[in-house]
Design brief:
103 residues; 71% helix
Length: 103
């Protein structure tokens, strides 16, 4: 019942804003009840939790790489715009006529 219950428990603690013995006991009881219900009456399992956790790590890795690449692209564009040869670049819109027929 691992990650799901721990997440709920820490969410409970964050929402309370203080940590006392009573809050920990009540939070653990509620978290255990919700976790038990979720595991018993849904398809949630330890294997599925591990898979979800793995996918979340891949998503975080992807987002980090995406942010780095966007920053690199922006730096490249700044170098291009601030370079003396920028005046030689003449941007324009190009229209292409395509004859498409419906199926």
């Amino acid at each position: 019942m691992g990650i799901f219950m721990l997440t709920l428990f820490f969410f409970w603690l964050i929402l309370n804003g203080q940590i006392t013995r009573e809050i920990i006991i009540i939070g653990f009881t509620i978290t255990f009840s919700i976790g038990y219900f979720a595991y018993k009456h849904t398809r949630l399992s330890i294997a599925l939790e591990k898979l979800i956790f793995k996918k979340i790590l891949y998503i975080i890795e992807y987002l980090i790489i995406l942010v780095i690449e966007v920053i690199k692209a922006n730096i490249s564009m700044i170098k291009l715009v601030l370079s003396p040869s920028y005046k030689e670049i003449k941007p324009k819109l190009t229209y292409i006529n395509v004859d498409l027929k419906p199926d």
